[in-house]
Amino acid sequence: MAQPPPDPHFVLRGTGAAVHALHFSCGGGEPDIPVLFSGSENGFIHVWNLKTHRVDAALDGHGRKSVCGLKTMDGKERLLSQGRDQRICLWDLAEGRTSVTDSVFTENVGFCRCSLLKVAEGRWLMATAAKALEEVQVLELPSKTSVCTLKPEVGAKLGMPMCLKLWQGSCGSQPSLLAGYEDGSVLLWNLSTGKVLSQLICHQEPVMSLDFDSEKAKGISGSSEKVLSIWSLNEQQNLQVQKTHRLVNAGISDITIRPDKKILATAGWDHRIRIFGWKKLKPLAVLDYHTATVHSVSFSDHKSPSDRLLAAGAKDHRISIWSIYTQT
Amino acid sequence: MAAALESALQAAGAGPCPGAEAVGAVRAALAAAGDPAALGERERARLGAFLRNLAAGPEEPAGPWRSLFLESPPDLAFCALTDSLAAPRPGWRLPAVPEVLEQFLRQGRLAALICELCQQHSRPGSVERHDALLGRIVCLPDLVGNGLQGRSPAAFFPQRYFPVLGGAVLQVLHNVSASLRGGLDCSVSFISHILGKVCVHGRQKEILSVLVPHLTDLTKSDCIWQRICWRLVECVPDRWMEAVVLGFVQRAPGADVLSRLLGNLVVKNKKAQFVVTQKMLLLQYGYTTAVLQNLLGYLALDGLRRALLIKVLQELLETWSSSSAVKHSPLEQQQYISKAILICLSHLKEPEIESCRQELLTSMMEGVKCHLDSSLPQIRRLGMIVAESISSKINTDGPVLTFQYEEDDEARELKSLLVQAAPLGVLPGLPDNENENADAALPPVLESNRKSTTATTHVMPDEESDAELDSDDDLIPYDMSEDKELKKTKAPVYIRDCIEVLTGSEDLDKWEEAVKALESLVRKNPVAAREVSVELAKILLHLEEKTCLEGFAELRQKAQVAVLTTDPIPVAQYLTSQFYSLNYSLRQRMDILDVLVLAARELSCPKGHGKTKHSGAQNPCIQFLPESGSSKDWRRIVDERIKSKTRRFAKGQSQVEQPSGPNEFNSLAGHFFFPLIQNFDRPLSTFDLLGEDHFVLGRLVHTLAVLMYLAVNTMAVTAMGKALLEFVWALRFHTDSYVRQGLLSCVSSILLSVPAERLLQDVTEELLETRSWLEDVVEKDPDGDCRRLALQNLLLMENLKKKLETAPS
């Protein structure tokens, strides 16, 4: 008889609204306090102190519109937040400051979270859905210069981009973008030419979330159906479906592969978090704590593997923190 | 030379017992004469007489007489030996002659004999000789068996002899082939006669198991052998043709082989044509699918024969679409004909289909109609499968018929006939367009499958790429058994809530939960359920499937049964009255019947529901009655004590006491039964039991049979039996076999349920009438199940009679 699934390590309460975005920042050394950023539907960003499990600060920068994406740029001092007020804000949180230093007006009304990639010291690329329905825009930060705009061919009928993932292979190769679209297809874009390298129809419904492992050249996507799709990128830069996995209940809102590429977590519409082994997609655990749709899952970037945490934010206003498979 | 032989024969004299020297002299002279075939008529006659004398003599001849028989002309020797077998006096001949005959066979003299007879076909007076020898060759096992009074040696058992004969025939055919190649004319008609006679004697298996494999090899690339073969079958006399053709069709390994062996026999020979196109397809139905494939494949392999193939298909379709055939012919035959149709279709090419598309369409429409009308599910399904196949053949681009039916082995086998046969038809000698035919033969389903696999790569197998060799084994999974479908709403807790949801609610999730919960609610709260029982029955009867709920029909049925068993009389009254009222679908009427049967079964079950209800094991409710539990314990403890202190002196298993209780069905049987039987002959505008709705009638009859059976040991059973016998009598000549089966089940139930004394006192007349009807059914009914049921009934009656005779009156 297998062990019963574990209970949450601890639970963070008090966001006052459904939680849509989570981001850990725990990479600092000993004096640094590990924190978790959470963005909720009422527009607040909470900074949780993971030692005390209390809110250190609540940031209000999106005009009470839902916060849908959170990223940090080099440590917890610079935070990037994306809200449904069509703005992406850059926060300066050093030394107790809580001010917006810069912002980008995306003019996009969708739900698509932006993707951030550090390409060099002090240089980032950010991909966001653009104003035109089907387009994706890639900007360089912090200069905010546009790198390219990715337009699908006329008549491709992909619908809106739903999820984005910027990635870069090892040894300084060109960064690429994976984008999941409303019609269920995943496209691989070449950022320097602005052309599609490969298209894969892996779902019948909109792709809600995807994550990609650039070492193994393998990615996973989830949609509003009952299926997870695992695909790989071959030498010829073609995407191929490798395997599909059937779920018990339909709907996946977020997928994250742990930074050590051992396991992955999915956030389900069925209130459950599912853990899989990444190599074979072996189902490992079903974490049933939340009482409403889970919107976001995120793994911490702790230096020591045994401290690594998993956070899940749900519509029931709670953030559950789990400590699972830390020994491997 | 011949003169020497003659003088030796003369010297030997015509006496009954020639001496050893004479035998030796004749043998030497025969050897000196050289080719025995070159002997003159006179020498032959003399030699024949000499041999006969030798074999028929009262004592065993001296000298090397056995060798003489093997060396002299085979026809003379064979005649002499077989003659002596028929002679009445047993003596030395008994062991010796069969021994010589066995050597005769072993040394290949049989082939020499046949060869000789083949060559003499043109001689005057040979016809009678041929016939006589033919009889003896073919009937040798019988002759030996008769002569030796059944103690014949193993070599003359038919299983051994006919393969030897086959080998001899093959050898002769080799000679024929050699002489044809040498430019000589040759006749095979005697061999054909042998083949025909052997086959008509029912020894196809033995002889053809030797001939067919060899001929298959020989005819592969040799046109002379092919011609010999064709000639061989063509020369078979008409009276034996059927047996030969049957043998070849059954034993040929494939249609192409059959085509090589038979050539265009069916076109040339009327008899063969009749056998192949009519008898084997329409009159008989015992052959395997492989035989059918052989036969129809053979017809399809040649341009001349393809006309026959189309004709055959038309005739098959005519039978298939005839409503009388569907009604009256046995299921096996209908399966056989369906298979034949499917195989025919698989062989047809596009232009041929084009030419008879209209006819195909007409017969398909007619056939589908009468098959769907049938009340036997197998026949309905057969109709669906064949119609789907025809429609996919004739509408290559337009929409095709599709039915919903259970996809089991039989259905798959039938469908595979439509596809598989095509590659079988691809032969080296045929033009390439056969391949197109093979493509066209693929049903649309397969094509779409192929497309989907190429277009979306969803179903790619789990590939083991090199990078994936390491696995997730170091990660131990947690228990995931709780990972179930998420339910959106909670199940209702009260029956009245259920009613409200089922009647008015628009919330489909709630509705589903209510349907799922209803049965257990009714069972848990019988008192509350009784208050609304008829209302519930009404709601359930009219309940339509609103969502795609798995097992909806079963859930509803269970709930209906629960309601009926909780409050039997009013609900049974309601349901039986609704069975005969207007504005119900056939499905609802059959639901009523099913529910009545299930509830009656539950009520009549000896372990009364009332007992188990409070046991707590079934229903997770709080137990209010701890006393009952302790009293059970008390009983058990006492039982165990008695058991441990008692020694039993009985063999066999100790009898487990069946749980007993009052039969709840006793007072209710009449309420279930009589309202159903009353109105069957009053047609309504929407419901005519005796007319079109005979399927419901069949279900009704079966229901009555079950109710009758369950009413055993109840008070009303005699009255019920009497009413049911009258009902059976009124319907006994119904055309639908399903209804007849039900009627026969009714008779069985009556015989089993009604006490024998009551049967004899109250319904003697009816019983006798029924008996004569049953006898009639056993002999004449076309349906196998009906015949079997009737026979069982007769046996039951017989047993009843015996029981009454032995019992003191």
Automatic annotation (TrEMBL), chain A:
InterPro entries attached to this UniProt entry: WD40/YVTN_repeat-like_dom_sf, WD40_repeat_dom_sf, WD40_rpt
Entry protein name: G protein subunit beta 1 like
SUPFAM superfamilies xrefs: WD40 repeat-like
PROSITE patterns reported for this sequence: WD_REPEATS_2, WD_REPEATS_REGION
Domain of life: Eukaryota
Alphabetical UniProt keywords: Repeat, WD repeat
A Pfam family: WD40
